[in-house]
Inverse folding.
């Protein structure tokens, strides 16, 4: 099956820089029936790797975005035989104000990691302030995108704006923006809205990676709308943003601390204020009618993705960072 490789965050490409890499899940060491039972009834996304803990000693570095309970176990036991590097999507938001016991335990575990890779600059600065002893061991590397898979297909544009995602998205903002207009909107993901509650010019569905590539290519514009808490740098939406940029699309993005790492307003995308459907409608109407502007934004978007987001670029930067950890 034709699939993008960015979900492995450059692990294959990392081998080109002299690293041996492996991928470990409980299915590699447990019978299928037991894995199904554990995943369904016993272990969560953050604890499912606990049965693998003895296997971690085979590696020099564990690089993960989850496995929080394993991370905590390593911290409590003071294990130093392998390093722990955390790929961060929203550490600061998860810690919050550390008011609950769970937040304080998570903060303790994070404070004991050997390195953190953030995917936006704002999160990096927040974590350096929270964990000053980790300064120099926190790096920002923009999210990896498979720019070979997500590449323009040459399909003819159609009169719709595409938005992508399953959670943390402000779909209502787009729905309100296109309501009563001639513009169509496609929501690719779990929208939370029933088909009967949507305007006639808005549709939603789940699509395969190949179908998504075609949807991107045919879209007149792509909207990435998120609305995280103002004081944190939640990275929701960066994966979809990278795909849209790589597809050479005119992207419209709600301005957040996270997105400011990726978008230069008016150059490779356009910012709109949060929850402002009127502003979004004006920007979309302008883009729908101005092919020259769409093409300019699309060219710059693709160039940016190739220079900053490709798997090879991500792996090269990660390689440099991991060598400082070892």
């Amino acid at each position: 099956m034709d699939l993008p490789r960015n979900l492995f965050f450059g692990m294959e490409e990392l081998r080109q820089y002299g690293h041996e890499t492996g991928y470990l899940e409980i299915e590699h060491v447990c019978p299928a029936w037991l894995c199904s039972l554990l995943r369904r009834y016993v272990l969560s996304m953050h604890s499912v790797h606990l049965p693998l803990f003895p296997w971690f000693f085979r590696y020099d570095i564990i690089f993960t975005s989850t496995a929080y309970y394993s991370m905590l176990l390593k911290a409590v036991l003071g294990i130093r035989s392998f390093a722990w590097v955390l790929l961060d999507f929203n550490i600061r938001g998860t810690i919050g104000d550390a008011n609950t016991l769970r937040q304080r335990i998570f903060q303790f575990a994070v404070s004991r990691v050997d390195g953190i890779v953030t995917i936006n600059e704002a999160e990096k600065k927040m974590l350096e302030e929270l964990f000053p002893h980790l300064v120099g061991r926190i790096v920002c590397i923009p999210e990896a995108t498979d720019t070979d898979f997500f590449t323009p297909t040459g399909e003819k544009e159609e009169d719709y704006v595409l938005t992508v995602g399953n959670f943390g998205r402000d779909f209502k903002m787009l729905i309100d923006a296109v309501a009563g207009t001639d513009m169509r909107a496609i929501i690719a993901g779990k929208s939370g809205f029933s088909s009967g509650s949507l305007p006639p010019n808005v549709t939603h569905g789940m699509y395969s990676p190949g179908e998504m590539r075609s949807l991107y290519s045919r879209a007149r514009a792509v909207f990435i709308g998120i609305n995280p808490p103002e004081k944190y740098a939640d990275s929701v939406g960066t994966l979809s943003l990278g795909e849209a940029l790589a597809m050479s699309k005119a992207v419209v993005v709600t301005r957040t601390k996270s997105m400011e790492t990726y978008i230069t307003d008016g150059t490779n995308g356009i910012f709109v204020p949060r929850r402002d459907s009127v502003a979004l409608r004006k920007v979309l109407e302008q883009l729908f009618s101005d092919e020259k502007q769409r093409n300019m934004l699309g060219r710059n978007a693709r160039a940016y993705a190739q220079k900053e987001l490709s798997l090879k670029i991500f792996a090269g930067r990660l390689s440099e960072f991991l060598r400082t950890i070892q």
